């Protein structure tokens, strides 16, 4: 990823983390986005700041079908909502890692884990193009509307395959563009930080995962994305559920 794009993304998420803490301090309600993507029972049991810090486009924890005892890695963990939910699902014999490049988000996530009294989690600073975990060390990789933000998705897919154990799986939600949209047309529809310009096409996503050695790739669109500032639908750009498996 070029330094300019990466810094734009980092700054945007740092600002979001600071805004989250301000809203929570002012006792404003949790964001509508999180409440529309997660079951009320999940959000009700989490710190307010975890829901406020959710900037995703889906619920990868539900997609991944986590089981007790599994080790989970969340790419771009933000305020930690998906890590905390994962830790609950894998139970005390399992573990959940969160990876984020933004110090402010890491601070927010660690504070949320402390408030929630969840101990089977760890938040790591790093990049999804260079995951700071050993080979074959996790059972499941999840992510929530983050892989589209990388300029080097080939590296991200390769790293996912590297850290997965044989038989491990991918369960992510992300933004995907119609195959008919050129990269230039995607840029016309929205910014990189807004999760539109960097969205891979359905074919690019599938080929990227398969080239990394993953199999059983499934990409299922769930709803059309909307431009954040005015909620206008972005034609040809979708939130999608992506599943795959390491053989």
Describe the structure.
- A seven-stranded mixed sheet has the order 3-2-1-4-5-7-6.
- The protein has helices spanning about 5-25, 30-35, 40-45, 50, 60-65, 80-90, 105-115, 155-165, 185-190, 200-210; strands spanning about 70-75, 95-100, 120-125, 140-145, 165-175, 215-225, 230-245.
- Helix content is about 40%, strand content about 25%.
- The protein is globular and about 45 Å long.
- It is α/β, with parallel strands linked by helices.
- Residues about 25-35 have low confidence and may be disordered.
SSE topology sketch:
Elements lengths: L2 H23 L6 H6 L2 H5 L3 H5 L7 H5 L6 E5 L5 H10 L4 E6 L2 H14 L4 E5 L12 E7 L8 H11 E14 L5 H7 L12 H10 L3 E13 L4 E14 L2
Parallel strand pairs: 1-2, 1-4, 2-3, 4-5
Antiparallel strand pairs: 5-7, 6-7
Helix pairs in contact: 1-7
Keywords:
single chain; alpha/beta; 247 residues; seven-stranded mixed β-sheet; 10 helices
Our measurement of the CA-to-CA distance between the termini, rounded to an integer number of angstroms, reads 28 Å
User: How would a crystallographer describe the biggest sheet?
Assistant: 7 strands, mixed
How many helix segments? Answer: 10
Largest sheet strand order: 3-2-1-4-5-7-6
In short:
This protein is α/β, with parallel strands linked by helices and 247 residues long. Helices cover 39% and strands 26% of the residues. Residues 23-33 have low confidence and may be disordered.
């Amino acid at each position: 990823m070029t330094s300019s794009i990466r810094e734009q993304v980092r700054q945007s998420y740092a600002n979001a983390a600071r805004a989250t803490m301000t809203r929570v301090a002012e006792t404003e309600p949790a964001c509508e986005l999180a409440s529309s993507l997660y079951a009320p029972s999940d959000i009700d049991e989490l710190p307010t700041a975890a829901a406020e810090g959710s900037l995703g486009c889906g619920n990868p924890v539900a997609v991944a079908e986590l089981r007790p005892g599994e080790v989970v890695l969340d790419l771009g963990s933000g305020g930690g909502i998906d890590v905390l939910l994962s830790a609950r699902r894998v139970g005390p014999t399992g573990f959940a890692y969160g990876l984020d490049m933004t110090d402010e988000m890491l601070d927010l996530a660690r504070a949320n884990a402390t408030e929630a009294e969840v101990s089977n989690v760890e938040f790591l600073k790093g990049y999804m193009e260079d995951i700071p975990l050993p080979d074959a060390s996790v059972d499941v990789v999840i992510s929530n509307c983050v892989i589209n933000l990388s300029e080097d998705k080939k590296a991200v897919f390769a790293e996912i395959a590297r850290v997965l154990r044989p038989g491990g799986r991918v369960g992510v939600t992300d933004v995907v563009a119609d195959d008919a949209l050129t990269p230039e047309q995607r840029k016309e529809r929205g910014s990189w930080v807004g999760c539109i310009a960097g969205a891979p096409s359905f074919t690019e996503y599938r080929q990227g995962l398969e080239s990394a050695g993953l199999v059983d790739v499934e990409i299922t669109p769930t709803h059309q994305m909307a431009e954040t500032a005015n909620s206008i639908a972005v034609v040809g750009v979708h939130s999608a559920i992506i599943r795959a498996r390491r053989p």
